[in-house]
Amino acid sequence: MEPSSGAPEPAASDGIVSQSAAGTTADDAGEETKVPDVIVEEQRLNVHHRAKYISINKYKEVVKKLTALRQSHAQLYDEKQSLEQDMEERINEAVSSERHRAAVRLTAALAERTEDYDALVEKTQSDLRLATRKHSEQLERARHEYFVQTKHQEEQIEALKAANARLEREHREEIKHYKEENQSLLDGLEADTCEREKIARQVEGEMERTKLCFEEKELLKETLFEKEAEIENLKQQNMELREQVQLTEQLNEHHNERIEEYERESEKRLEQELHRSTKERKELEERHAGDIEERERKLEELLKHKEAALEEARLKAELLINKVRQHEEANEEIKRLTAEGNEKTRLQRELDKMRATCDTLDNDLQARKVTVAALTKENKRLQSEVDRSREQIEEKADAHEKAQEEIKILTEKLQKNKAECGAMEETLRERDLKMERMKRRSVSLEGRLKEVEELEEALRKEKEKRQELEKNLEEAKGSMRMKEAELADALKALAEQKESRDRFERMYCEVRDSLERTEAKLQETIKVLPVLPTPFGQELAFLYRHMRAPPPRHDKESLESQHALRERWEAEKELRMDLERVGKAMKGRIDELTAETKMQSEALLKEKNLRGSLETRLKTMAKLLDDKEVEFKKAAEEKEKFERELSKISDALRKREVELEEILKAHGDASAANRKLEGALREKHTNVERLRDAFKQKWEHRERAVLELHRNKEAAIGERQRAMEALKSRIEAQAKLLEESRKREKKLEGELQRSADERSALERLLAKRNKTIQELKRVQARSPRLRTAPTQPSVKHDSRIKALEKSVRAIPEILRSIHALHAKHRDSEELKRGLEAENEDLKYVLETRYPLRRSEEVKEESVSLSPREQPSTRNQTSTTSSVALGSSRSGSPPSSPGQVCELFVR
User: Fold this and answer.
1) pLDDT at position 435 over 70
2) pLDDT of 161-205, one tens digit each?
3) pTM here?
4) Alpha carbon distance 196, 366 (integer Å)
5) 497-506 long-range contacts, Cβ below 8 Å, gap at least 24?
6) Which of 205, 180, 536 is nearest to 393 (CA)?
7) Which of 189, 191, 384, 626 has the most CB atoms at less than 10 Å from its CB?
8) For residues 262 and 317, is the Cβ–Cβ distance under 8 A?
């Protein structure tokens, strides 16, 4: 939308127009031409910025819509206040009716509770009578069970005595058997130790031999690594030489192309000069007279051209000399490579020697493997014997420990039977504990058996590992075969590389011969040039000779040298392949030797550890058996003493039990009567106190509930007041924002008006300038001199154009600020709606849960409520709620700052 042209323009715009008109007249008088490019740029800028202007009418429509929205918002706010008042009145009426109903319900509940209390008292008295009868019956049953248990314990004691005597006999027989077996095991261990010492000496000798083999193997490894590094260096040098040969070939091709181009150009130039010279001679002969100066000038130009051609030829000759030097350096490198090939042959011989040594080491290792297999068989046999002896000793030790533990249990029981009747129960408990210990010992023995099984599994795993190592050796042999096949393929690739190298050498020889020929020809031309009568004839003769020269041919000597080089390369390749094969075989062999030596050392260490542990265990077992025999004799003597004392104690216990039974009967009858009376009185007293406490708790709970309601109401009032204050602060902030937005809108309207005025003035200027430019174009079309004359823009118009550009740049920023203000206005309206919804929810919650009342009325209504007092309370609550709502009504945001002031006056 463009601004209307009929709007009044300020004086500033008239001044700008007058200045522009004066400037145009001065420019028309001073200068006859204008720049059309400046005008085109101004037109483009006008088209670009035309879409960014906003009309004032549209902005006014937006303002009208905003005012209409504010009015509708105020009407909605008034309707909301009226609805809130109606809701408050209805809520107060509902609360008063609910209070009256609650009082009636409480009185009915108290009457029901008193009836329930009387029924409970009667029920508890009947329950007390039944409990006394059951208690007397239980006492009689307990006495009978105690008599039966005492008889059963006496029978158990007699059975334990018989078992103890039987165990003593078996224990003596087992001790004799253990001694005999221990002696036989000690003899076998001495024989085993002798055999083991012999085996250890043999193993130490073999270990020394393996150490020597390992040192030799490390030396061979070092030599192999050095030779492999040398081979890699030679390979890298060979690759670098190949790259240099390729580069030289590329350079030669490039130089040959340049030489051919130069020869063609020189031929063409010479033909042109000959043709021109013939024409000039004809013209001279026809005219017989001409300008001497022109002839001299032409001759000088010809001489300059010839000098330039000579300089180019000299530079090319220098380049060719440099190439020849590079080729000589390449020949020297080839000689050095032949010397390195001789060194490789020498290394191949050394590798053959190392291979022979490796074969001898392989034979030694096979012999050692046989010895190791024999040693492993002997170790297995000895290990099985040791395991058997260990199991027998452990079984005997377990039986001996069980017998000793049973003896200790019996002795403890005899000592505890010296005490009164209650000591018998303690002995039984201790016996149970001892049985648990026996179970734990059995568990520990099972753990030892598991350890033995684990050792057997470890031996089996070692066997499997050895089998896996043998399989790995076979796989390594297969991989060696595969690698040999790969090496054969690599040899084929090297043969192909050799053929390509021979081909490159042939090409190199051809290039070198051609370069030498070109040098010789250049030198001949340089020598012949001053002798020939004319320069044209000399150049023509040189070119014809060079073109008619026969192509280069290969000599027999060069072919023979190439054939010899090819044979040397094949020999070097074969040597390299042999070296790689031997190095790989040596690596595999060394890895196998290291693995076997590690396995042997680990097996020997395990055997030593097992032997030491077995010897220590056998010694400790022999000592334990001797100690246990002595302890067993002492235990048998003490057992006889305890049996005598047991017989005396059992007689005394029987007499004491008869007396106790008579006393218990009399005491039980008296205590039963007393307990019945005391239980009945106690239960009655507890029931009365329980009911009294329940009534007090209910009364206190009601008082707390009333107080909590009052406190919650006060807290709700405080929260509502705080919410109203927060809403007031928000409304003030929103009012300030609205005022600021109005100020900004006014500023933007002024800026838009100014920009519209400036734009109209600029459009007039542009129209005038377009007219002047059209007139200038007509003048230029009439006069041809003015078309090519340089154009210079005036300084005044440039300054005006810059001012226009600055004003146009500000327009998009103004538009952005307007859009931002509209967005803020929408956000503020949404925030107002959200606050209104929150305020309504708060009012509903506060009025339904906590209606506003005084604390005195709450206390009176909690104690006693009557229907006559309800209307007064209703009026009071309505007044308080209206006061609170007066403060809450300010929560909704007003539509203008005038309404904000009215709220604060309230």
Assistant:
1) no
2) 777 677 777 767 877 776 777 677 777 777 777 777 777 777 777
3) 0.18
4) 23
5) 498/566, 498/569, 498/570, 498/573, 501/242, 501/245, 501/569, 502/562, 502/565, 502/566, 502/569, 504/242, 504/245, 504/246, 504/249, 505/245, 505/562, 505/565, 506/554, 506/562
6) 180
7) 189
8) no
Q: How far apart are CA 906 and CA 903, in angstroms?
A: 5
| 752 secondary structure, DSSP code | H
pLDDT range class, residue 901, cuts 50, 70, 90 = very low
Q: Is the dihedral of CA 132, 135, 141, 143 positive or negative?
A: negative
Closest C-alpha among 359, 342, 348 to residue 579: 348
DSSP assignment of 310-374: HHHHHHHHHHHHHHHHHHHHHHHHHHHHHHHHHHHHHHHHHHHHHHHHHHHHHHHHHHHHHHHHH
CB 578 within 8 A of CB 348: yes
Residue labelled with tokens 């796989």 = 475
- Mean pLDDT for the chain? 67
CB 738 within 8 A of CB 73: no
**CA–CA dist 645, 639 (Å, integer):** 10
Q: Which residues contact 78 (CB under 8 A, 6 or more apart)?
A: none
Position of tokens 């049973």? 406
Mean pLDDT throughout 13-20?
38
Cα torsion through 739, 742, 744, 746, rounded to 10: -140
Q: Is the dihedral of CA 437, 443, 446, 448 positive or negative?
A: negative
Give the model confidence (pLDDT) of 149-170 as tens digits. Answer: 767 777 777 777 777 677 777 7
Q: Where are the beta strands (DSSP E) in 444-520?
A: none
Q: How far apart are CA 733 and CA 739, in angstroms?
A: 10
* Cα-to-chain-centroid distance, residue 360: 56
> Which pair of structure tokens corresponds to residue 898?
């005038």
CB within 8 A of 324, min separation 6: which ones?
512, 515, 516, 519
The dihedral sign for the CA sequence 822, 827, 828, 829: positive
Contact 836/80 with Cβ under 8 angstroms?
yes
Q: What is the pLDDT of residues 644-660, one digit of tens each?
A: 777 777 677 777 677 76
Contact 536, 277 (CB under 8 A): yes
**Domain residues of the chain, as ranges?**
42-185+196-325+345-459
Distance of CA 683 to the CA centre of its chain: 71
Lowest mean pLDDT among 75-79, 102-106, 208-212, 872-876: 872-876
Rounded to whole angstroms, how far apart are CA atoms 403 and 70?
107
Q: How far is CA 182 from CA 237, 389, 632, in A?
A: 78, 9, 19
